[in-house]
Amino acid sequence: MAADMSSGLPTTIKRGTPAFRRANIAFFLSAFAIFASLYSVQPLLPIFAEEFGLDAGASSLALSATTATLAIALLLASWVSDRLGRRTLMVWAIVLTAGLGLLLPLAPNWTTLLAIRTLIGLTLSGLPAVAMVYLAEEMDPDALGFSMGLYIGGTAIGGMAGRLVSGILADWLGWRPALAILGAAIAVAALVVIVLLPRPHNSARNRLSAGDLVRLIVLQFRDKGLPWLFLSAFLLMGSFVTLYNYAGFRLALPPFSLSHTAISAIFVVYLLGSFSSAWAGGLAQRLGRRKVFWAMVLTMGIGVFLTIVPSTPVIIAGLAIATMGYFAAHGIASAWVARRALVGRAQASAIYLFAYYLGSSVLGTLGGYAWVAWGWTGVMLVSGGAIVAAMLVAIRLMALPPLPIAEKPAAPPAGV
C-alpha cells in the first residue's frame, strides 16, 4: 500500500486483495469485541443488584459509568489519534479493553467492579472515534461501502452477542465465569486484530491545537439543525437504554418470572434493528430525512408504550418495534449530522456520539431510580417522556430548511 510513484497518489486498499480481507476481518472483530464488552453487563444488572445489595438505579451504574466515560473520551479520542496514529490508538483501545475485561470477574466488591467498568469506558473510546475515519482514508471507494457495512454489522452483532453470552452463561455458571469466558473471547479477538489490521498509509495529519479543537466544537452549535440532532441522540439513546435496562428487572418478577436465559434471548430482536436501519436509510435517501425521521421516532414510541401491557408476548413485540424504530432513527440522524456539518465533520460526529452515550448514562440511571420508586410506570415516565420529547424534536426538524447542494462550506475558524 505504498504510494503510487507513477501518479504521486496514495494507493488505497482494493476490494478482493489480501489487505482488503485482513482489514475487514480486523474491523469486524474489533467492532464485535468493543461493543460486546460495552453491553455485556446489561442483562446482569438484576444479578448485580441481588449480589451486592443494590437497588436498580445503583446497579445500572455498571453500564452508565462506562457510557459516561466513553461519552467524554470520544470528544478527545479523534484528536489524540492525530498524534498517536489511527492504528496505534485502535490497537491500544482493544488491548486495554480486553485486559480490563479479564480483570472484571475478579472484582472483589462493587466499588472495584464499578472502577473497572469506568476505565473500560475510557479505553473503549479509541475505536469508535476513529474506525470510520480509518476506513474512509484507507479503503478504495469501491470497497468502502462494503467495509463500512461490515463494521456497523460487527457493532450490532457484538452488542447483541455480549448481552446474550453473558446473560445465558450467567444463568448456568454465574456472572463471574460468564464474564471471564466473554473476556477471554475478546482477548483472542484483540490478538487477531493486532496481527491483521493493516498499517495506514493515507491518514490525514491534521494536527489541531487544543484551541482549534474547541473552536470547531463551538462552530457546530451555530448550525440551525445540528443542536437539535444532538438532542435527539441524547433522547433516543436514553429512552432505548432505559427500556432495556429495566425490562429485565420486570420480566424476572411475577407474573412473568422469566429466567435470565429467556430474558437475554430477547436481545435477538437487535437483528431486526440492523435490517430496519438499512431499510430506513434507503427510504430517507429517496424521500428526504426530514420526511422519514419523525416516522421512525413515532415507530419507536409505539413500541415503548406497548410495553405497558402486562403480557409477555406484547412486551416482546413492543421491544421489537421500539428496536426497529430506534435503529432506523439513529441511522438517519447519524447521516444527517454528516450532511449538515460543512466544517469539522469529525467534531460534529463526536458531539453526536457524546450526546448519544450521555443520554444512555443519565437517563439510564434515572430510569433505575424511577423503577425503584414507581415500578414500570416510573420507567415509562423516563423512557416514554424521552421519546415524546424526541418526537417534538423530530417535528421541529421537519421545518428545518435543507442545505443547498451547491452551497460552499463555511470558512473554518482562524488557524484551523
From TrEMBL:
The chain crosses the membrane at residues 23-41, 61-80, 89-108, 114-136, 148-169, 175-197, 225-246, 258-280, 292-309, 315-338, 350-372, 378-399. SUPFAM superfamilies: MFS general substrate transporter. Its main location: membrane. CDD domains: MFS_NepI_like (cd17324). It is a multi-pass membrane protein. Coiled coil: none annotated. It comes from the Bacteria. It is found in: Cell membrane. Keywords: Cell membrane, Membrane, Transmembrane, Transmembrane helix, Transport. Residues 19-402 form the Major facilitator superfamily (MFS) profile domain. The keyword Membrane applies. Belongs to the major facilitator superfamily. This is MFS transporter. It comes from Devosia yakushimensis.
